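Good morning C.,

I know you're traveling, so I'll keep this short. The sequence:
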Amino acid sequence: MQLEDDLEPEIRVVCPPEQLKDLTERQLEEEKSICLDSMNPGLPEKLVYFHCKKSEYVDNEEEFSQMIVHFELESHVKYEKQEKTVAGEEKAESGEGDAEKGEEEVVTAVQENAEPVPEEPPKKKTKLRNQFKYSERGCQTFNHPTRDRGVSTVPPSVCKFKAQASRATIYDTYLATFLTAHDTSEVTEKPDRSAESIENPLAIRTLHSDEMQRAVRLMEYVVHHNAQKEIYNDFLMATGDGKAELIPLWRVKSAERRCVTSIQFNKKFSEMFAVGFGSYDFQRPLPGRVWICTLKNPEHPYFKFDTKSGVMSMDFSREHPSLLCVGFYNGKVAVYDIKKTKSDPLIYEVESPEDFHKDPVWEVRWIEGEMAFFSISTDGMIIKWKLAKNELTKIPVLNLKRNEALEDDEGLLRSAQATTFDLNPLNCNQCLVGTEFGEILMYNLLEQNEAPKEFFGHESQIYCVRWSPFSSSTFLSASEDWTLKLWNAEQSHPIITYDLQAPVGDVSWSPFCSTQFSTVTYDNKIHVFDIAVNKNDASIHHSTNTKKYALTHIACAVDNPVLISGNKFGVLDIFKIPEHLTKHDEDRDEEIQRLENVLKITGTNVLDLQELELPNKLL
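The tokens, ready to paste straight into the viewer:
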């Protein structure tokens, strides 16, 4: 019996007769293989799209799915493994139950033979709190029911107004408002003659008289002195006990917090000084203000007035102590009379913008013996302003030029951008000029075609140059390169150089001590030098404890050992110099000789390597 052969399936070749009509025997005998792959023949082989930016057809690189779903049905039948696990758990539970029953039968049999034991009361099972529905009593709050409350008020009175506006009506109204604002003399209130005048005209005249103002001001000084008795005792009697420290007296703060740009003492009234406020942040220019103060009551200015542009420099006249010339940020200059406290103190002003400096006015100086003053700016111009009868007359004096031998790749910086200057105390036609490039130039204003004398030593912008009031050949310079230098006009290199570890903002000679000068730096320190005591370093290094506010200017009083410093946020600090640093001779000639003797010991002859003929190996 061939059972295995009988179980094999019978193979039958079914050929539809319609397909075999046109085929030959060779074609029927050929075997053709058919291959199946996973690619969907219904999908396009290559797609392109038009790229508008490139203006051409681009291949589409997206991938298409090759899978086709013919039938899909979600199943709700459990897996066989899952059913087995459920059945196993049930059997385990039943087994535990049988074991418990067996144990109970054994226990009952033992208990029947044993003595009866008193039954214990069943213990109550403690219910565990659901951790998802747990809440503390202290966390529960009581929410009051909301209530609506309404308040009604009396409606405001309303009136209806109708008018027709035309171009002529608008112009007439604007013109009337403009004239009213600019011509206050015409708009005066007429006195009401019907009402009886109760005030006494004699009492009004007495109340506003000059004698009454002097008496009230004197009384204010007395009250202020009594209120600050200890400070004025230090001002008059403190000696410093030989310590190298400044004695603090007053600190005055400006409410506007503007930068202190100038401090000038009056040359005749030694207790009076002027403070100018402006801004060194040229991205945000601010209007200016001028204070006129005295050491009798420095916390309350005697007189103050505002300016449209920021104040950059000031100077008092020696022949006319009430005249104050001011240079502004917008390039304008003006002259004020501080005696006019009741009215506008402005007496002279440059009105035409064509006459302005093109840059801020960094320095102004009165010319002794003349009703005129000089001004200087970074536009490279020194201009003389003469006080005429009704206006300031502009007289260009000098156009500052840099040395053509200096390196300048662009060729655009031919003008000397001056930032400070000072007149020689004995020869007002000789002046020192400091520039933004670290150059110090000495000019003779009478000889315009004469080349200036140059002084070399600074590497950055010059902030201040000051002649000594006791010598026509000695001067100081303060720079942004952290140095303070002492010069002799006959030498092209400095005599002494002090490195103060911060940009030096200003320097001031003592008006009564020939060997003493003071300076301020941007790290909020005041340095007091006396080359007769110490030639190598400052005698006093005082920190003002204002970390954020850099000191900008300093000034020395004329007859008192007092220093005034100002910073960028309008804070004035007034100090007294210790007595051991203010020793001087009342005779001016003795002070001049004292300065010359100190400079002889220090040495005025500086070795100039450029003037010596040295071998190339040493250079």
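Safe travels,
E.
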